[in-house]
Write a structure and sequence with these properties.
The protein is mostly helical. Helix content is 53%, strand content 6%. The structure holds zinc ion (ZN).
Length: 690
């Protein structure tokens, strides 16, 4: 049972760096506040003891609800079964969401440690519920034939989750499944920790080896006591080297260090995870983990994953070949006669092509994206698009002093609350994500969610200029937040919030990324931080054209990661040679030659949590582009299509299958036409633009 639904950003395994500042302009209007029945827990400034008390009370309430189901006499009714089941779900969700969030963001180490322990405790309670046979039997004998569609869908879906957990197996088997799941949880943490702990570095002789890198990068990398300059494998250190360093041998050495993180440790951990997962799948009657893991998702089964990967490859290949030819022509300027491109050369050559072929330097747009302006622009865009009003609760307390509290209302009525935790802080979660904190329940509980990002904070002397990619990331994550709030008017907690199918969650946010490419939308907020000049439409057009170059290669790389993720979890673990699978997939899908001596699977973090479901990113990208095609590209802020989208796709949340949401909006199942058009835009752009 997947009770905690925290969304992680769309980063892929190694995609290009994305990066984001504002003039303080806190709105003067105060929000109207939460209803008396739902006071902000921060108003009391809870310490760790109060936190634990609240969480333990929630767990106790969940247990009371479960006891109530088991104790019910007579026939099963919605009232004596589904109502308490949903109450248990609501309490467990709230406990896990809040404690796992505190462990990521609370400034105090003791608080974080106790929150981690609380997450473990609450997760164990959730697992126990997923294997509780009495509750399963109660729910399965419930007659919902006369209930509304959302209730019927909810029950059917919960019964599937129960069966996938193994609730109908005998006691010994269920005990064994619990052991396997606990083992898997530990191995997954070890896999992630091995990656984050293994920072590697290379040493270069002098600043001359960093030629081509931006001056601020060179300035911040001074020689150490031994006279050498140290470059680490951390993303902010490594990506600029892969993209800009003229010295090929520096790029190559760093790539080898990068591609050996967590190796060989994670080879063994991965093999253990593969064995545990294969065993779970076999016990539950599936031929592979990929099949089992797909059973409660849009894609349905493993064969469909394989088909999807092949279909994407067929769509991307002709375009990727055209891009490859351009990259190779660039390489041939300095290496005449070269016929192949190594994986480590990809970023560097791509940047060269963007500069020489598209006349675009990515640093030229930063002055238009000061953090405060971007924030206001993103809030305004979302308010306009979805007909909402955001009011800041100025000075409201939260977990850290710089966290902002915002109320969401519609037609003067409050419908939810969100928190913005936007800037780095020691020991804070270091990527970008939306964290749901409470699921909305009609008439009972308003939805709450938090956005956690790490954009440089503006100061009196620094406007906090953002890279364009960070602006896109900001709106992407904000899209998850809006989804969580707008889907929070369900009757049941269990279907409130973002879709139950884990392979749909990214589509709405990926769709909104397109809004940040629209000259019309950008013109509403992107102004030069010194002159106040609106970003020129010509610059936006040039930026869009340049950033469209490389899409097919990007898709091919994502497809190769999807294939790796699928292949190692669709075969018997003893038949899988990890190096052969990863090298093979790179060659088959990307047209690039893998540099020998690297073992990327060891640092491919998604192989832990996502396991066989890495295809999700491309699957949702296909849906997202199909969604975009329903809007008027020249007027993305038009209210009609956005209102329809909100009503059909966002508001139902998890009360309908994601396949139905998509079909209801498109009038058909999704297809790859719009996606294909998006991939090929660079070539069309060139024709019409030149
Ligand atoms: Zn996302």
């Amino acid at each position: 049972m997947n009770l905690a639904r925290v969304l992680h950003p769309f980063t892929g395994f190694l995609t290009s760096a994305v990066a984001c500042v504002l003039m303080a302009s806190a709105p003067a209007v105060r929000g109207q506040g939460l209803p008396a029945s739902q006071p902000s827990i921060w108003a009391t400034k809870p310490d760790v003891t109060a936190f634990e008390k609240m969480e333990n009370e929630r767990l106790a309430a969940a247990q009371r609800a479960i006891d109530q189901i088991v104790a019910a006499k007579g026939g099963r009714t919605i009232e004596n079964t589904l109502v308490p089941f949903d109450e248990a779900t609501r309490q467990l969700n709230a406990t896990i969401e809040f404690s796992s969030f505190m462990q990521q963001v609370h400034p105090d180490a003791t608080f974080r440690d106790r929150a981690t322990a609380m997450t473990t405790k609450a997760s164990a309670a959730a697992t126990a519920l997923s294997l509780n046979r009495e509750v399963y039997q109660a729910l399965s004998s419930l007659d919902v034939s006369k209930s509304d569609p959302a209730t019927r869908y909810y029950v059917q879906r919960q019964l599937l989750e129960f069966r996938l957990a193994g609730v109908d197996k005998d006691d010994a088997t269920r005990a064994h499944l619990r052991e396997l799941n606990d083992k898997l949880t530990n191995e997954q943490s070890a896999f992630d920790r091995n990656i984050s702990d293994d920072q590697r570095s290379i040493a270069v002789d002098s600043a001359r080896d960093l030629e081509g890198l931006p001056q601020d990068y060179i300035d911040s990398h001074k020689p150490g006591a031994d006279g050498k300059i140290r470059i680490t494998t951390d993303y902010p250190d490594a990506l600029p080297v892969f993209t800009f360093a003229k010295n090929e041998s520096v790029r190559k050495q760093l790539w080898v260090a990068f591609g050996n993180r967590a190796y060989p440790k994670n080879r063994d951990v991965l093999l253990e995870m593969m064995r545990a997962r294969q065993e779970i799948a076999t016990i539950l009657g599936y031929s592979s983990w990929a099949d089992y893991n797909a059973a409660d998702k849009m894609i349905g089964n493993g064969q469909n994953i394989a088909n999807f990967i092949r279909q994407v490859n067929e769509a991307a290949r002709p375009l990727a070949q055209r891009e490859f030819a351009m990259l190779l022509a660039e390489k041939n300027k300095t290496s005449p006669g070269a016929k192949e491109i190594f994986d480590f050369e990809n970023y560097y050559l791509r940047e060269l092509v963007q500069r020489s072929g598209y006349n675009f330097d990515s640093t030229s747009v930063r002055p238009y994206f000061a953090y405060d302006r971007v924030k206001q622009g993103i809030l305004d865009t979302a308010q306009k698009l979805f007909g909402l009003t955001f009011n800041q609760e100025v000075g409201a307390p939260a977990w850290a002093p710089d966290v902002e509290t915002w109320d969401v209302s519609e037609n003067g009525k409050m419908i939810g609350r969100f928190y913005l935790d936007m800037h780095p802080r020691p020991n804070k979660f270091s990527h970008a994500q939306m964290s749901p904190l409470l699921e909305g329940i009609r008439g009972k509980q308003l939805p709450e969610a938090a956005l956690v990002c790490n954009f440089a904070a503006p100061t009196a002397t620094d406007p906090g200029l953002m890279d364009y990619g960070d602006v896109v990331t900001f709106f992407h994550e904000f899209g998850h937040l809006v989804h969580q709030i707008l889907s929070g008017k369900q009757q049941w907690s269990g279907v409130s919030g973002i879709s139950m199918e884990a392979d749909f969650g990214e589509a709405p946010s990926q769709m909104l990324e397109e809004w940040m490419r629209s000259p019309q939308v950008l013109a509403t907020f992107a102004r030069h931080y010194k002159t106040g000049e609106t970003i020129p439409a010509e610059l936006v057009a040039r930026m869009n054209r340049a950033s469209a170059f490389g899409r097919a290669s990007w898709v091919s790389a994502q497809d190769s990661y999807s294939a790796i993720s699928y292949e190692i979890y669709s075969r018997k673990p003893q038949d899988v040679d990890l190096d052969a699978v990863t090298d093979g997939a790179t060659r088959q899908y990307t047209l690039l030659t893998p540099l020998p001596g690297t073992h990327m699977f060891a640092s491919f973090g998604h192989l832990g949590g996502y396991s066989s479901a890495y295809y999700t990113y491309l699957w949702d990208k296909v849906i997202a582009e199909d969604f975009v095609s329903q809007f008027d590209a020249t007027n993305l802020l038009a209210p009609g299509p956005a209102a329809r989208y909100r009503r059909i796709v966002l508001e139902p949340g998890g009360s309908q299958s994601a396949n139905d949401l998509v079909k209801n909006f498109l009038g058909r199942a999704q297809n790859t036409s719009a996606f294909q058009k998006w991939m090929g835009e660079e070539f069309e752009g060139k024709q019409s633009g030149n």
